[in-house]
Design a protein that fits this description.
23% of the residues are buried. β12 and β13 form a beta hairpin. The strands form three sheets. Strands 1, 2, 3, 4, 5, 6, 7, 8, 9, 10 and 11 form an eleven-stranded antiparallel beta sheet that branches. A four-stranded antiparallel beta sheet has the order 15-14-17-18, with no helix packed on it. The chain has two domains: 197 residues, no CATH class; 73 residues, Immunoglobulin-like (Sandwich). The protein is built from three helices and 18 strands. By secondary structure, it is mostly beta strands.
Length: 278
């Protein structure tokens, strides 16, 4: 309880900056909650052409405050989707789960801006959905020869670093970018989640849970019998393990009356589904 109160107070302080502040702190930029989703699009290309874009979608599964170290640990599921290279080619889809460590919560968020020769201008503004964006933009001067230009930005409660970069002397693609395309938080969503990614995720996660929300009994249905022998773990909103079950077949009823009302995540392997208990 004490840890939860400290976390709440810390995030309230960090999420209410002064209007005169000219930057965003690590605590403001990486202020995530369990269930948050952020998607960005990566693209690399040169004047001669380039490959298809890759979409990275991050879902926050767990959050832990280490108050003595000024640090927050996030459990993050990452899904990667790359469009097909040709009309007859197949898209690629992969995923993993990582621990993201955010420290020095009151210091300015890092940009890792690699602009050379040019100076940088800091800009703080609101995006189309009302969230603060801190951007570093190269300032053009005509005395630079083939400079690296690198525009970087971080977004309040959404993360980063998002960027567009041009490096004429690069041995590979001369232009790269990672652009924020979508985010979803408790306050609502902004942007558009790639439809193809949604379709591929649904195919790669053949798990149905109904009714949802529920208060007494849920049914878990899996078309793939390979999941039957795997443990299904119920996690609460903070990522704590609440119960573990094994299915008796491809369709199993589970009693959830022992769980308090709230949002839970059912995890099997590296796949996750959300369940709301009323």
């Amino acid at each position: 309880m004490k840890k939860d109160i400290l976390l709440l107070l810390l995030m309230v302080i960090l999420s209410n900056p002064s209007f005169s502040q000219s930057f965003l702190t690590n605590g403001q930029v990486y202020d995530f909650n369990v269930g948050d989703v952020v998607q960005g699009r990566y693209l690399a290309y040169s004047p001669s052409g380039g490959g298809p874009p890759t979409y990275e979608t991050r879902t926050i599964l767990g959050k832990e405050l280490v108050a003595t170290l000024d640090t927050i640990l996030y459990t993050v599921k990452r899904d990667f989707y790359t469009l097909p290279y040709c009309p007859t080619c197949s898209p690629t889809f992969s995923h993993d789960t990582i621990i993201q460590t955010v420290t020095n919560l009151t210091l300015p968020a890092g940009h890792n801006n690699e602009t050379d020769c040019y100076s940088l201008r800091d800009t703080l503004y609101l995006d189309t959905c009302g969230r603060q964006v801190w951007e570093k933009i190269p300032v053009f001067v005509d005395t630079c020869f083939e400079p690296i230009t690198h525009t970087t930005s971080v977004v309040e409660g959404v993360g980063g670093v998002f960027f567009t970069k041009s490096d004429p002397s690069s041995g590979g693609p001369t232009n790269t970018q990672f652009i924020l395309t979508y985010y979803s938080k408790n306050s609502g969503s902004c942007g558009n989640l790639t439809n193809d990614l949604i379709e591929i995720q649904s195919k790669s996660l053949p798990i149905q849970i109904f009714p949802n929300p529920a208060s007494q009994i849920i049914t878990i249905k899996i078309p793939d019998a390979n999941y039957v022998q795997k443990p299904f773990v119920f996690l609460d909103a903070s990522g704590r393990e609440m119960k573990t079950i094994k299915l008796s077949g491809t369709e199993t009823q589970i009693d959830i009356s022992d769980l308090n009302s709230g949002i839970y995540f059912v995890k099997v392997g590296d796949r996750v589904e959300k369940v709301v208990v009323e």
